[in-house]
Amino acid sequence: MSEATYSQMPLLLKALRRYLPFTTAPKMNEQLESIKTNLKELKRLDKGFTLFGSSKHQYRLNPTVSLETIQRFEQFYRVELPSEYVHFLTKLGNGGVGPFYGLEPFENVVFDDLDYKRPDSLLNPSKPFLHSEAWNMEFQPTVDEDDEEEYEKQRQSFEEVYYDKEQMNGTIAICNYGCAISLNLVVNGEEYGNIWTDDRASGGGIRPSYELGNKEKITFLNWY
Hints:
Number of strands: 4
Oligomer: single chain
Number of domains: 1
Helix content: 25-40%
Structural class: alpha+beta
Order of helices and strands: HHHHHHEEEEH
């Protein structure tokens, strides 16, 4: 075996641990099985789709994603997606039923606006996520609204920073909360694996996801 082949072994072993079914952590398998059971029970109990978001997804999961599709995404963006998320997509389904308006299909995760998906307005998972604590800004003009020209200039400068897509670098959009608010999974940076909320549309800034009542930061399967 060549020296180059030996040098690649850690990467190969890492890939095997991540992708082969028999290497899935027991806890993760238990969580996936629990999710399947709970979804069946929810569908049985909520036949009229009365719970928030259920009329959209109707407790259905889309067909699973292939590992090849995942790997192409990772190679293109030079990231490694969190294993919990990968196992969900490849074993349970590619979006559909989930919290709020459901789990977004994998093909939608780089759109920075899940209400208006524009190919020219995308997230960039290749760059690290900028935040480790809740972040927000408040518009504080130095002139009154009577000075329309200067006021508008300052407001525009504020919005260029506040709504800059760079603020959500290193994430993928996995869930539409509604009202232009998205829940994003960090795939690059210090907060890797945690879910953060982009609530800038309502002035709430960018913060760890606490919508489900959790007190600590939350990873994908615990959130789902």
